[in-house]
Predict the 3D structure of the following.
Amino acid sequence: MSRTCLVVKESRPPKFSTRHRNRCQLCGRPRAVYRKLQICRCCLRDLASKGEIPGMTKASW
């Protein structure tokens, strides 16, 4: 779980554009965030397993 202060800090516009950090909309994780869905890989896997993302299924073989 990310710290709440960092999520609040990221919501404000940065002083320089290169300081922007993509964060997961669900948990606030700063790394491995898919731009199209705006969620991290951990949340993506959980939602795919539950079947909450249309057209996406978890692979099993």
